[in-house]
Amino acid sequence: MVRGRVVLNVAVAPFRGLRLVIVEPVTAANLAAANGLGGGTPLVAVDTLGAAEGQMVAFVEGREAANPWWPNHAPVDACCAVIVESVDFRPEDSK
Q: How confident is the model over 11-53, as pLDDT tens digits?
């Protein structure tokens, strides 16, 4: 879930032109409750998709997050990969 955006005070060359957002992972309990809450530990991710605040996104972390900028070096640890349109979540105990 996108919770906000990050504005850099000093331009960092590899981030020039990139949008940074604060994303909060959604826990299984909050997903099942469909309450719009996240519950996970927030982190900063690069967003090239244009996700709005409050939208649910899927993101990747680690080396895979920097793959869109290969072969150039981008100091990215998390990247928004998908804007989620809808969720059909069925907790395991409701089978």
A: 778 788 889 999 999 999 999 888 888 999 999 999 999 999 9
Please give the structure tokens belonging to residue 47. 């967003």
Nearest to 56 by CA among 91, 27, 77, 76: 27
**Domain spans in the chain, listed from the N-terminal domain onward:** 2-94
SS3 71: coil
Note if the pTM is more than 0.90: no
Q: Which CATH architecture has domain 2-94?
A: Beta Barrel (2.40)
pLDDT at 70: 80
2-6: strand order across its sheet: 2-6, 19-23, 43-47, 78-83, 57-61
